[in-house]
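Render this sequence as a predicted structure.
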Amino acid sequence: LREGDMMASEEIEKKEPVFSFPYNPYDIQTEFMTNLYKTISEKQVGIFESPTGTGKSLSIICGALQWIIDHESILEDPISSSSTTSTTSTTTSENTTETVKSS
């Protein structure tokens, strides 16, 4: 991350995430999403467990998507999103080379 991105990331981390959940989440779901969000933010590996029927799948989806939404601005690389030209060369069975340029 560049210096400006690091500052933006630190500002995001100071705020408590607000999760988009399709209904009012139970405390266990909010805790699950918050712990998942923090684990992703700290670039750690997490092992999460919760009893059957507590909404683990939805909690994972909502927690991870909220992290992506909150960090979208620092995940986008301005260099890769600009228009660039790439060249691809392939060798055919006749041992000739084809060059394809794309923008």
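Summary. Residues 20 and 62 are 6 Å apart (CA to CA). The helical segments are 3-14, 27-41, 56-75, 78-81.
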